[in-house]
Amino acid sequence: MTMPTPLTGVVPPVCTPLTPEREVDTASLVRLVDHLVSGGVDGLFVLGSSSETAYLTDGQRKVVIDTVAGHVGGQLPVLAGAIDMTTPRVLDQVRAVTAAGADGVVVTAPFYTRTHPAEVARHFRLVAAGSPVPVFAYDLPVSVHSKLTAELVLDLAAEGVLAGLKDSSGDEGNFREAVLGARGRADVPGFSVLTGSETVVDAALGMGADGVVPGLGNVDPEGYVRLYRYCREGEWALARAEQERLCGLFGMVRVGDAGRMGGSSSALGAFKAALFLRGVIACPATAEPQVPLSSGEVERVGKFLAGAGLL
Amino acid sequence: MTMPTPLTGVVPPVCTPLTPEREVDTASLVRLVDHLVSGGVDGLFVLGSSSETAYLTDGQRKVVIDTVAGHVGGQLPVLAGAIDMTTPRVLDQVRAVTAAGADGVVVTAPFYTRTHPAEVARHFRLVAAGSPVPVFAYDLPVSVHSKLTAELVLDLAAEGVLAGLKDSSGDEGNFREAVLGARGRADVPGFSVLTGSETVVDAALGMGADGVVPGLGNVDPEGYVRLYRYCREGEWALARAEQERLCGLFGMVRVGDAGRMGGSSSALGAFKAALFLRGVIACPATAEPQVPLSSGEVERVGKFLAGAGLL
Amino acid sequence: MTMPTPLTGVVPPVCTPLTPEREVDTASLVRLVDHLVSGGVDGLFVLGSSSETAYLTDGQRKVVIDTVAGHVGGQLPVLAGAIDMTTPRVLDQVRAVTAAGADGVVVTAPFYTRTHPAEVARHFRLVAAGSPVPVFAYDLPVSVHSKLTAELVLDLAAEGVLAGLKDSSGDEGNFREAVLGARGRADVPGFSVLTGSETVVDAALGMGADGVVPGLGNVDPEGYVRLYRYCREGEWALARAEQERLCGLFGMVRVGDAGRMGGSSSALGAFKAALFLRGVIACPATAEPQVPLSSGEVERVGKFLAGAGLL
Amino acid sequence: MTMPTPLTGVVPPVCTPLTPEREVDTASLVRLVDHLVSGGVDGLFVLGSSSETAYLTDGQRKVVIDTVAGHVGGQLPVLAGAIDMTTPRVLDQVRAVTAAGADGVVVTAPFYTRTHPAEVARHFRLVAAGSPVPVFAYDLPVSVHSKLTAELVLDLAAEGVLAGLKDSSGDEGNFREAVLGARGRADVPGFSVLTGSETVVDAALGMGADGVVPGLGNVDPEGYVRLYRYCREGEWALARAEQERLCGLFGMVRVGDAGRMGGSSSALGAFKAALFLRGVIACPATAEPQVPLSSGEVERVGKFLAGAGLL
């Protein structure tokens, strides 16, 4: 389907359910997509960081996009991550996900290599030239180790290179600059600014953001859909209360023992444990080499669900 | 062929010549390999950082390893990088390069994801379990954004997981600790410690390192072979003079204007310009999105070659 | 005077006017304080980052606190930075500023040294034990190179060590966690959470923050006072419009050429140029070794003032 | 006394013994200085990182330089750290230590503030203009969070600004570039390049470094003096054996539990425990807020001493 301009609303990054053998569990993936769609989301983002895309082989990535695009194609927009180190490899990813039906692609700056602002711009220009669908820039300094400035992103939008920004940087100052630019500049019509920061969605929408891409939205899509609606309706007190309930729920990302595993293992493990406990997916396994949550840690995830009224 | 234990000597990371259209130039690649072999090197390392592996598609990577292993297979050991973000993706790379004939694989810690020492260890264990050939750890914090400590590497060697360390960290203190451990510990027989730091090879060999993996060795393999031999013979004054000549030559990595391009573009561009000027490869192009050297910058590369007696 | 618990409202970090010879210009400093007080601010924060405290000698720091406390002492609370590398040096700074009349001190984690969460906690405990006035933690990772987590700060508050948090980290997720903890935990009554991020004040107050410490408040105190009042009154549309005007004004921090000077020089130079152009201070000089703005750059500051209706 | 040009030999950074109450223990400091001088060192460096200068008040710093300069003044050169955040504060430190008799000062780039290469150069120029004694640049990125390139340092040397470089960066590539520049450039006569890296002294001297500033030299000055002599005499096998013995001894820096304290606490705690166990100083206390070694950890320091033949 054609990507709305701008893309708005709640567009969760879809977790990738795995079997105990760490293969993509397509039945669970379909259930998860149904859970999100029936929760009222406005689009889906597959193969992003919350989807463990960094851990999926190309074959598994293909299964994911085939499954999701095959299941919902045309009903709502499907964004797909095209996450790889540099332009030629990203273009291969773009070809794969668009062949399978992605309506838009999400692309980071080059990583692993040392880079330069001029090369980041060149990268996005080449990717856009080779992509049959709109390109969203993905700002994720914790993974990419460089920062996309609002100015660079907006200038590339004005060139017709970028259709939107998915900001998971946690840098709300630069985010607001992007929002103000997207609204204020005449040369970037339809540019979409989306936040990936689960706990400041009310603030981001209050600033004028177009939408939200919350990893935690896998666990509680209805919550984020309500939050989005309250913000759009200017019901700020209701929005804040809903957001604060979600902030409480978000505490689950730290259940994993930091002495024993990385932050990624803890957060993704918690999201999957929550989906498992809620009966959405069949197995909470995360991809290798992430250390799994212990049974006690999974139990604590359950308490977060109960605390947020979800169990 | 069977990997020597330990692997020793000069094992250059082989540049990947490209055509003007940025496809692998196999004729030039074969000439480059011949240039290295006739220069006296002890092994080849393809698909490493100096090979622009981060910029090569999987198809291009296959062309590279097929070409090199096909050309020299059995004559001298061929190490291949299996560079990707996490365990499942690295294992795909391992399968590809070993099917094509790699005698050993070179693997980094996970990147792009946030990780943890326990997960780094788990990663190497799983990769080794899935690899038909010996695994060398690749320490490259500038790209991977985490550091492999000597202790972790040696403990994994003692478990039979790692066959060697390719250290491009520039951290000579930790490097020496790895060398001393490799010599001093009874539980790591045959473990190979290799430095990737072009300008301190005499120092590394003086500490007891097994070998050297110099990007600049593409340009002047004879120089590094002489340097290695002087060090092995205890001819430290000759070694130092040879090393200092190579330090002068290495200055080429900074010909690129830092205001216009990244450090990677400058260094890889210079190596390729030098190979072009020496008549080894047909085209000095680097992969996208690297900014190419200007003609004035290429000219300065020529001056470095002349200064080192290579033109 | 006794520090309000919690401290609320607009508490600008007071710039330190200098003479052309780089001595503290006390006449200008008094005028600046009057400008802020008549603008309606609720407190003053001297010797913070925007005050160039890192550039002031101990003698100059004493002149600043003597001048400000002498001029406004008792009228409104005066917080003073006690910025130094480690506990013993910070305690010397605490003694100096409290002897001169500071009503509260603002203290970072240790810097320059490598540190550890247990040592950060120990540091704040020892500083609080040696301080006759309340201690506010100052979270400024760009300078200190470590992060104060909400959990650590709130636990120290519960121990009676910390009276508040001045957050200039730009990490709004952790900030909100601190705000929610300050409100939700029974063991931290009166704890004050203040943001130093000029461009997201409406968002921070919307989350429940107690107050704001905006460097840009030197230039336009009335603007921040209005913004604060709109937020407190729930006039979110007015708040957003005021905040967006201030976002536009904040653009001045980037007038300085990044190829010629650091970000600090540009931002502090712009604030001082604006105060000079508005007639508040006699000389826009910044401390050594900051590169001064060019006359063209100062002119551009004037355009930002005009754009925000301040000239 | 006049600083030799270049300064050469073993110049240990002198630890600062403290009483149990964390005051400078001048009697122990004098004994430590005698221990170093009788060990054959060529100079002393007080108020550096190994001296815990970041933890000493200005009053304590004065006691240190008064004590050391008063005790050895004129016998051998005394370098003093003038460690503070920016130019004006560094100049105050320079005045204090030179008034007390320092023969040279050691100065870092600005820290805590965001800086820029042009401002780093301006900083050193202003410090040198205000210093009655030669200025050595101190490269310590782990503390200062910026890097001094060989090119910048040598250009400042050519201007007459810098007399030497004390490199504790662990970046031996840049170090070698500084050494080669110091020898190869006609415009930097007498420039001294010193390494602070305890475990690669043989390598550094093999490259042509002028001297060494080893924290571990407090514990075993004779060892470093022997090592220096072997290197100067070209006795590389003896040098390597001596260096490897010292590498073993250096292992003490990791006795402290990383879960309980920072790396600084562990390393400085170990050096002081070793000096205490060897009977040189009266109390092994380190400054606040460093977590002290446990008795078990101190015992392990003893084993390192025994292993190196020092107990």
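The first helix of chain C runs from residue 26 to 38.
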